[in-house]
Every structure is written in structure tokens, then in C-alpha cells.
Amino acid sequence: MDDELVLCAETSQVWPDGGDRVQLRKLDSLFDLNQQFQSYFKRRGDVETDPTWQQLCSYLVIRCGREVMGYQRPNKGGDVRLQGAVSVGIGGHVNRTDARPDANVSQVILNGILRELDEETQIAAVASPPDLKGPVWLIRDPTNDVGRVHTGVVAVLDVEHPLEEFSVTGCVCSWSTPQQLFRHAEHIFGAGAVQRAVGCFQLSGRCKCLQRRDALRHIAPR
């Protein structure tokens, strides 16, 4: 894993304002990334603990009406820092296999999204490829060791039915509204987890106060 080449950008370019709280940036389109910063493939082991670099991770939130798909990661295997964590969104590192000749950063990230969707779910067999012409979000949580060196590039895939085959490999999946998801989140995972989730659900465009705990009352997806 340490020798894997992953897509990165300098933290000072991705987050020019710095900060030590959950951060969120909205872009009109995935293709706006081409004008935001320069990207490079770097050895993962060299940037895993270097906060001057951001590892760019593609994330796709899967939404069906008012519900989104969430899942709990296994307690064994994978990154030990994420074991047992609850996540919203399919994705992961963008690596060298996602690059094509003359591909720009947005195309490389799109390839990463499609690869992760194919590897982790059966959605590709029952849903059209995601339409990423709409807004995307950059999200970062520098309050923990993982979030400090990773930036999520978040898009949304709307599906018609929450079919059972929409599962993530090795994880327990469920469909919930944001309110249901957050109801027990702070008590189980702490306020930081709730803030990260609220940041994700600002995708709905209705959450106006990322850092406030009462942000939940502003969330009304679709």
C-alpha cells in the first residue's frame, strides 16, 4: 500500500485559507477542478503523514429520494484508523490506473469514481453511469489523522430504488434519512462524526451552519 501512487495536490492550493475545522468548498462542476490546482501522482507512503499534501479521494453519495446509503466498515482489515466507522459515500484513493493519456484531473477523478463503484457495489449493473455535470464538493476534516491528509471530492448519484444489491463489499449497509442517520451518531461516534456527516449533507444545499450542532434542523434532502 505504501508504494501505491495516488493522486495528490498541495494543501495550500486546495485549502488556501487553512483552518483546523471541517472544511467544505462547492464547485459548479467536476470540471472546475482543472482550474483549481495542479495534481500529481505521489507515493502514498510519502504523503500519508505529510499535511502539506492532500490525497484526493473520490466519493459518490448514493441517494434514493430522501434517503442515502450508509454503511459500517468492518472491525478488521483495511485502514485500522477507519475500522468500525460509519461512512456515507462510495470511494477511495484515485490511483495511477485511473489515469489515461492526456487526461486532466477531473477525468482522472471520474475514472476513479467509476472504478470504485464497480469494485465496491453491484450498482453498475442496474444504474446508469453517474451524471457529474452538476455541482461537486470538496470536503476535509483536519481534526483527525486521516482527514488531515485527505480531501474528498464528493458527487451525488440518484437512483430510483434502494435495491438490496446496493451493497458495499464487506460492510453492513442501510438506507436512512439524514435525520435518522444523525439521531444516534453523536452519542455513538462523537460530535466530530456528526460534523463530518453534516458537511456531507450540505450537498442538499440547505444546511447553512456546518459548525453548529443545530445544523440538523436545516437538512432536508431533495
Blueprint (SSEs and pairs):
Elements: E1 5-10, H1 11-14, E2 23-27, H2 33-36, E3 40-43, H3 44-47, E4 53-64, E5 67-72, E6 86-88, E7 90-93, H4 105-120, E8 136-140, H5 145-148, E9 150-158, E10 172-176, H6 178-183, H7 185-189, H8 191-201
Parallel strand pairs: 4-9
Antiparallel strand pairs: 1-3, 1-4, 2-8, 4-5, 4-7, 5-6, 5-10, 8-9
Q: What would you call the structural class?
A: alpha+beta
Radius of gyration: 16 Å
- Please, what is the average pLDDT? 73
**The CATH top-level class label:** Alpha Beta
Distance between the termini: 38 Å
Low-confidence stretches: 186-222
What does this structure look like?
The chain has 222 residues and is an alpha+beta fold. The protein has one domain (5-218): Nucleoside Triphosphate Pyrophosphohydrolase (Alpha-Beta Complex). It is 24% helix and 27% strand. It has eight helices and ten strands. A hairpin with a 2-residue loop joins strand 4 and strand 5. The longest helix is centred in the middle third of the chain and has 16 residues, at 105-120. The protein is globular, with a radius of gyration of 16 Å. The N and C termini lie far apart (38 Å). The model is unreliable at 186-222 (pLDDT under 50).
